[in-house]
Amino acid sequence: MTFSAHDITHMTRALALAREALFLTSPNPRVGCVIVGADGVELGSGHTQRAGEAHAEVMALRDAQTRNNPIKGATAYVTLEPCSHQGRTGPCCDALAAAGVARVVVSVLDPNPLVSGQGIARLRDAGVQVDVGLLSTQAHELNIGFFKRMTHGTPWVRMKIAASLDGQTALENGVSQWITSAPARDDGHAWRARACAVLTGIGTVVEDDPQLDVRAVTTQRQPTLVVMDSQLETPPTAKLFTPQRPVWIYCALDNAERRQALEAKGAQVVCLPNDSGKVDLAAMLKDLGQKQINEVHVEAGHKLNGSLLREGLVDELLTYLAPKLMGQARGMTNLGPFTSLDDAKALSFHEVTQIGPDLRILARLSR
User: Fold this and answer.
1) Which of 1, 35, 130, 167 has the most CB atoms around its CB within 10 Å?
2) Which residues on adjacent β-strands are paired with residue 340?
3) Is 257 a catalytic residue?
4) Which residue out of 20, 42, 53, 57 is catalytically annotated?
């Protein structure tokens, strides 16, 4: 299928709308929709709202109605295949067809088995022309965690690390505030905000007593906080307990008294031990997938980082490198020591951007 320059322009606009929903729609995907008349003029537009509320197509139809713009014969540009099932909202494919849309341009198919291909089939059965594949890479990236969960049953795991240019994350005495600049820290909050869950370890909780919430950017929701705590040592007085977000604690050794104290603070405690007396990390990710977590944002110490990497559970690294050298200090992970370079974890650079004085490197694990 060959798309026109006008098609690209309108889908680019739909993708921009979808990005406006980046911090909003979880666990649903971020979707944008633009409806355009035969003369190329935009008639209505919108993006998916919070879970249980209107999807992008319905928002665009409502916008067109508000503007008193007739839809019959128009083209709709949608960044994800219109849904075909009755969930908390009705099927969007039926809404578009009923409105008289003549053509629908879809960026990428929905990986949800309840939808995949069926939304397009129903539109075509209703006599609507459907063209698929425009700017599909961008649409997939925008919902990379949703695609991972729908196809593998587990979330996309993004490990955030702030380090010096020589790869150190803290001094030997534990001091780490602040290695990177304020712009880099604010940018890190934006990545927190887009995630469904922030994951940390008990070592970080005990040493730093962090909040690990989103403060530097505006968001309507706080991601769930997940704590890996094998022995249930999380203090009930920890700053991480806030009324704005759920806290899930995964342990390996249950303790009724400690569990009760943590549950009294609103925490949900899940016991998933492995044979070594630690939390079964793979089972934890499967559990998070079942709980509709699309993206996990890891902010932990070198021990948990190393464990996740060793077990092949990390999809990408979000690394901020400050232009400074810290010498002998604490590194990013406790991987190794390796005896061969063949044992090294291979990465591919996905994106390199300067944020203030620092570098932000998005690198993906080679599979």
Assistant:
1) 35
2) none
3) no
4) 57
